[in-house]
Every structure is written in structure tokens, then in C-alpha cells.
Amino acid sequence: MTEPTHAAIRVHDASLAHAGSTALVVRGVSFVAEPGAPVTVLGPTGAGKSTLLDAIALQTPKEQGPELHGGSIAVLGHDVRGLGGRARTRLLAFVGHAEQRGSERLEGTMTVGDVVASPIFDRDPRFDRKEAGVAVAGALDAVRLPLGMLDRHVFELSRGQRQRVSLARALVLDPKALIVDDPISGLDPVVAPDVLDGLRTLAETRAVVAAVRTPRQARAIGGTSVVLHRGRVVGAGPIDALLADPRHPYVESLARTERPAA
Ligand SMILES: Nc1ncnc2c1ncn2[C@@H]1O[C@H](COP(=O)(O)OP(=O)(O)OP(=O)(O)O)[C@@H](O)[C@H]1O
């Protein structure tokens, strides 16, 4: 596979279940994310946000990822159903995935520089160190982490810093598709807007799908929102249009959280 020619993530009527289960946790979800048009996914806990994002990020049932039971998901022009092992590995080089709680799985004794560079050297152990350093610096900058952190060990970092290291690692290969699950969980409220703003900038040049917690976070990233409730879409469109005309009690509850108290 050469460079992907399609820039978009296309989800069409997708239904998903977890490995070893036939119970659908995502049903009939459709949207398109492309450069300049990110998609944020909102929904209460257990709504299916991570399940959906894991499927888009090419996780397979073998790795405890979800299974597509209906519809289709195409990432950068490749249908994920029936994607062979080698084609999947090649496509993964163009897909950045910052998993929910990915920061908790970082190796504590590694340095920030080594963690962020790891996708580069996993692909090519002989990759030029200087060039890798430039990519790592760019990724740290995108998540607003200072270069002075490069030699710090993961165990020395706060939860919010680890979260940003995890996001930087997902960015280091300059992915054409970026899947980000709960990007500011655990972040200091002073830093969070900066990270969301960084995502908005990244979304100008790549397809971004981000699961977020609040309408405010969705607004900060921009694009359109898909609201999930029990695995089904209960609202889709620009977040402010959804909140202005809620068609489901959950969307109404989101709108209420934003109204100033009387
Ligand atoms: N590995 C798994 N095996 C079976 N069921 C799972 C698995 N992971 C999640 N689920 C179930 O799938 C449903 C959707 O979970 P998911 O994690 O996608 O929701 P979410 O919207 O991301 O929630 P949260 O906001 O809490 O992260 C839930 O009912 C959850 O219990």
C-alpha cells in the first residue's frame, strides 16, 4: 500500500459488538470526518463512544477490539472489514490512536522522548535519530508539553502530563487520521483549552474523530457532533444547532447543563 489517497473516515450504518458477544453496543451509526471537518462523539458513560472509536482505529476482535456486525467503516479509503493483517499494519502507520486511559498503560521507566518516539522505531529501528527528534519535538509542541520534558521518566509525571504524552505518541507519525478518546481527561483546566485548541489545528489537515465529555469540548474542537445514547445516534450536527433544538432527552440534558442557572 502506498500513501492513502482518500483523506476521510467514513462510517456508514455501523453496528458493533464486543469480541465474543453478539449484543450490539453501537447500532446504525453514520458520519464522515475529513480534513477541516472533524467529528466529536458525545454520550453518557457506556453509550458506545470508545467502542466506536476503537473500531475506527482498526482494533480487531483478536485484540479485544469490537467486531463490525453491520454497515461499513472505511478509513483513508480502506474498508476495515476484511482488511488483511499486512494491509492493516500498513494502514495503521497513517492512523493515530490516543486510547481512553492510554496514559495508564505507559511504561513508567521509559523517558518521555522514548515513549513518544516509539511508533517511529517500532516501524523502523534504524530510522534517523535526528529526524525522529524533530518529529518528537513537533508532537510535544502540539500537546503543549515543553521540550525540557524529553528526559523525564513517565513515573515522574502527573496524570495530565501522561495523558498529553500519550496524545503526542499518537501524533508522532503525522497521521492522516487521528482518533482521540477523551483527550483532556485528567488535565488541568488551565491546560485543557490549549490541548483542545491544538486538536482543532490538527483537524484542519487530517481527519479527526474525538470522543469528548461536554458540549464545550466539542465546540472547542469544532466540526460536527454525533451524540450517542445506548449505542444509537440521538443527535448529529453542529453542537450549538443540536443544543438549540434537542430531539432527545439526553441532548436536552446536555443543553440544560449549559444554560445559566436562573
Ligand atoms: N471489552 C468489552 N467487552 C464487552 N463489553 C464491553 C467491553 N468494553 C465495553 N463494553 C460495554 O460496551 C458498552 C459501551 O462501552 P464503551 O466503553 O464503548 O462506552 P463509552 O461511551 O466509551 O463509555 P465511557 O464514557 O464510560 O468511556 C458498555 O455497555 C460497556 O459495558
Automatic annotation (TrEMBL):
Q: Which N-terminal residues, if any, form the signal peptide?
A: none
What the entry lists under InterPro entries is as follows: AAA+_ATPase, ABC_transporter-like_ATP-bd, ABC_transpr_LolD-like, P-loop_NTPase
Outline the extent of the ABC transporter domain.
Answer: 9-255
GO MF term list: ATP binding; ATP hydrolysis activity; transmembrane transporter activity
Q: What SUPFAM superfamilies has UniProt attached to this entry? A: P-loop containing nucleoside triphosphate hydrolases
GO CC terms, sorted? plasma membrane
Q: Which UniProt keywords apply?
A: ATP-binding, Nucleotide-binding
Among Pfam families, the record links this protein to: ABC_tran
Highest taxon in the source lineage: Bacteria
> What is the name of the protein in this document?
ABC transporter
What high-level taxonomic lineage is stated for the organism? Bacteria, Bacillati, Actinomycetota, Actinomycetes, Micrococcales
